[in-house]
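R.M. (postdoc): so does anyone remember the format we settled on? I'll just put the structure tokens first.
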């Protein structure tokens, strides 16, 4: 992700060129960050963007590509046999918050693959919480 890979490298390079520079990083949903950008509270936003009205009137550059990955623990029952789409419906999932860009992408993948969204799920943007669930 941008937060774990791209931003740390950019900050290192900035500090190499400008040793006294103070960099403040704010995280949050794209809609909030873009609203802060529009009112001048942020200088730039790095993250997932969509073709939504939120980015109209702003200049942006595509920096990286991401893939969506299904992750399970080593002893998870889904690993016992070749994965079938309907098998995913039987287990709780951890998903990004509804309404976020990444969640819209995930929802779209579920529809494209004909997978029903499991009723039992945890919706969060917290990587720490996701790993502990």
């Amino acid at each position: 992700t941008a937060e774990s890979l791209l931003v740390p490298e950019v900050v290192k390079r900035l500090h190499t060129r400008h040793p006294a520079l103070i960099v403040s990083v704010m995280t949050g949903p794209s809609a909030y960050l873009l609203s802060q950008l529009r009112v001048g509270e942020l200088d730039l936003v790095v993250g997932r963007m969509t073709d939504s009205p939120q980015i109209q009137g702003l200049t942006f550059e595509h920096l990286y590509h991401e893939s969506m990955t299904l992750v399970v623990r080593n002893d998870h029952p889904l690993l016992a046999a070749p994965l079938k789409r309907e098998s995913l419906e039987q287990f709780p999932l951890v998903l990004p918050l509804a309404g976020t860009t990444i969640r819209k992408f995930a929802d779209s993948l579920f529809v494209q693959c004909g997978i029903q969204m499991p009723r039992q799920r945890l919706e969060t943007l917290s990587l720490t919480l996701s790993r502990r669930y």
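R.M.: ...and that's the designed sequence above, right after the tokens. Also worth knowing: Residues 77-132 form one domain. Helices lie at 2-17, 30-38, 85-88, 101-113, 127-132.
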